[in-house]
Amino acid sequence: MNLLLLVGAVALVAVALTDTPAAASGTQTAAASSGNSAALIGAAIAVAGASIGAAIAVAYTGAAALAALSERPELFGRAIVVVGLAEGIAIYGLVVAILLIGKA
User: Fold this and answer.
1) DSSP 18
2) Which residue in 83, 35, 31 sits closest to 57, CA to CA?
3) Domain ranges of the chain
4) What gap in Å lies between CA 55 and CA 89, rounded to an integer?
5) Average per-residue pLDDT in the chain?
6) Alpha carbon distance 38, 44 (integer Å)
7) Which superfamily, per CATH, for 39-104?
8) pLDDT, tens digit, for every residue of 67-83?
């Protein structure tokens, strides 16, 4: 199953990178379209990777923060900061995606 998913993902990226518009005239337009496709795929990967990483980080830090708060409620401020830092990973991925789309 994992091999099939990997092959499908590689095929999707290959098709997206070789995609040229049917009405394109000249190599300059095709090269610009290919570069645009690569930037958009990069932006999608940046957002997806950062979101998955942030979700994993928040899951672990949130569970640890709740465990710490159950024993010592005065650690609430520190727990919120730690979980907020873990959520910042997704924001960094979004910023990278915006920068990539801006260059496309």
Assistant:
1) S
2) 83
3) 39-104
4) 9
5) 83
6) 10
7) F1F0 ATP synthase subunit C (1.20.20.10)
8) 999 999 999 999 999 99
